[in-house]
Write the structure tokens for this entry.
Amino acid sequence: MPTRETAPNGAPCWTDLMTSDVAGARAFYTQLFGWTADEPNEELGGYFTFYRDGVRVAGGFPKMPGREAMPDVWSVYLATDNAEKTVETATAEGGNVIAPAMAVHDLGTMAVVSDPGGAAIGMWQPGTHTGFGVLLEARAPSWFELHTRNYEAAIAFYQNVFGWETRTMSDTPELRYTVLNNPEGDGELAGIMDSSGFLPEGVSYWVVYLGSDDADATVAKAVELGGSVVRPAEDTPYGRLAVLADPSGAKFSIVAPNDQMPAR
């Protein structure tokens, strides 16, 4: 997919990393993916941005005081044209407010809520910052996936709150999976997986997939840089996938093309 100016409403539009080691995270991801990173902006709480070839792809910020016990984590943001109203709708649909709608200078307005399964999901009403400018390519955000124990409730929540048009991709005992259709054309932009078979009670979360040309090479490089392998690379019909953790423990997935992957 070429560079993107704006995201359609309800679509993933940004991802960022809350980290306990800003310097370490900047070094790890820039070396792993060939990104660059601007300097932390103290007016924005130390927030910084990663770029792929000069195009925004992700952000990062230091863990705030009082959150030391929280794990380092990658988060997902969905586009909205009215963050305040979306927060109101989310609470009416069984969500809880983690961070109310707040303006971030002229960049946009953000909020964070939890869905009925407890997974945190951000929202972003763009101003001058329109989100990541490229996706579905190597070294860029490539997929976003909710693992939930509340599958049916989660589907209804994202349909009603963010206007998702969905399609059931699989409905077997082995895999129940629903995808967000791309409202601007063919393809899908995110997925919801019934993970009740392996997630502990009360645990649901979003997963960020970053693209790679070569999953095995990316796994080896991550380990060389001090990261760890949570799940080794394996071939699937959706690409060669692996789950990694950076040196501070933040988990992320990678996806690379393989022979099983259908052409887009």
